[in-house]
Design a protein that fits this description.
Elements (H helix, E strand, L loop, with lengths): L12 H7 L1 E2 L5 H9 L4 E7 L2 E10 L4 E6 L2 H57 L4 E5 L4 E4 L1 H7 L3 H4 L18 H6 L5 E6 L2 E11 L5 E10 L1 H15 L6 E3 L7 E4 L1 H7 L3 H8 L3 H4 L5 H13 L6 E8 L2 E8 L1
Antiparallel strand pairs: 1-2, 2-3, 3-4, 5-6, 5-9, 7-8, 8-9, 10-11, 12-13
């Protein structure tokens, strides 16, 4: 197909290409090999100080090939269009990226704001609790202390977070009597210590996540100084009353909470023996065939809303049974 800028005029393609210089990485041997293998491709040549670009490709089922020159103007125009489309595509991608990034940062900002608000609410609630509270992680490092706890050790929250729980510096720290250690050993997790003339009890509990994995521990402190003083006053008062005196719970076992020294003298058992042999149950210390009588008298007194009962029974001692006249 002839045109005014054609390269091949009245001669074979082979003759023309042999006179040309192949440029931009093109090689005549590669072009021939592509034709033998029926592959398509581009070649760049320089002929009479002019550069030309050709596209070649097989046609039909046998040895026919098409060879066409791509005019420079077409290449430049298409190149500009390609660059323009690439720029448009890049701008679209950049716009989508900006939108996604903005959404991501907005969601993150909103979540951070919500977390901070919930943390403030949590801190406010914990600081309203009058008893000292310490939250520690599974490595026994402090993650939070409420205002009562910080006041007790006279420190700021920023100074204690990340510090070991032994910052409390009690006699139980670094010992097996530590509340957390006792909790992990499935023992009674309540311990006590004294500070500045006051007595405190410490109760430790596990903190677990949704997978029931241990994340840490929470320790609560309670000042029981006044309760101990009242118990001492009660014990002193009871010990001055003639005869044995008991303070029992209103349950079927009549569990003994407090007993006078005179009662110990009467039964002959020590407080430890009463706890071990009778589980601190007054009913178990009474002669077996009289236990139902005690229960019925107590039940009748409660139904009639009496404030005073009198009953006679036999109490087990180390030497047998003694006759007891019970006023309650």
């Amino acid at each position: 197909a002839q045109h005014d800028k054609q390269v091949f005029i009245d001669e074979t393609i082979h003759s023309t290409l042999k006179k040309a210089d192949f440029i931009k990485g093109s090689q005549y041997s590669k072009v021939l090999d592509d034709i033998k293998q029926r592959r398509s491709g581009f070649m760049f040549i320089k002929l009479d100080d002019e550069e030309h670009e050709f596209y070649y490709a097989p046609i039909g089922e046998k040895n026919w090939y098409i060879l066409t020159e791509l005019p420079k103007e077409t290449i430049e125009k298409n190149s500009y269009l390609i660059q323009q489309e690439t720029m448009y595509l890049f701008l679209k991608i950049e716009f989508v990226f900006i939108i996604i990034s903005a959404m991501f940062f907005y969601v993150r900002y909103r979540n951070d704001k919500l977390i901070k608000r919930n943390n403030r609410y949590f801190h406010d609630v914990m600081n309203c609790i009058p008893h000292p509270i310490t939250i520690i992680n599974k490595h026994k490092d402090i993650t939070f202390m409420n205002a009562a706890a910080l006041k007790m050790i006279q420190k700021d929250l920023k100074d204690v977070c990340g510090q070991p729980c032994s910052i409390w510096n009690t006699d139980n720290c670094h010992t097996q009597n530590c509340a957390v250690c006792k909790l992990l050993e499935h023992k009674n997790s309540v311990t006590s210590f004294e500070r500045n003339g006051k007595t405190f009890i410490v109760n430790s509990s596990l903190l677990k996540n949704s997978k029931n994995e241990i994340n840490g521990y929470i320790e609560t402190f309670q000042d029981i100084t006044k309760a101990i003083e009242k118990e001492k006053e009660m014990a002193s008062l009871i010990d001055n009353i003639p005869g044995g005196v008991l303070l029992c719970q209103n349950n079927p076992d009549c569990t003994i909470e407090l007993m006078s020294d005179r009662f110990i003298d009467i039964c002959g058992f020590s407080r430890e023996e009463i706890a071990s042999y009778f589980h601190n149950s007054l009913i178990m210390m009474i002669k077996e065939d009289e236990r139902d009588l005690i229960a019925s008298v107590k039940k009748q007194a409660l139904e009639e809303k009496k404030t005073h009962i009198e009953v006679h029974y036999h109490l087990q001692t180390k030497d047998g049974y003694v006759s007891i006249y019970h006023c309650g």
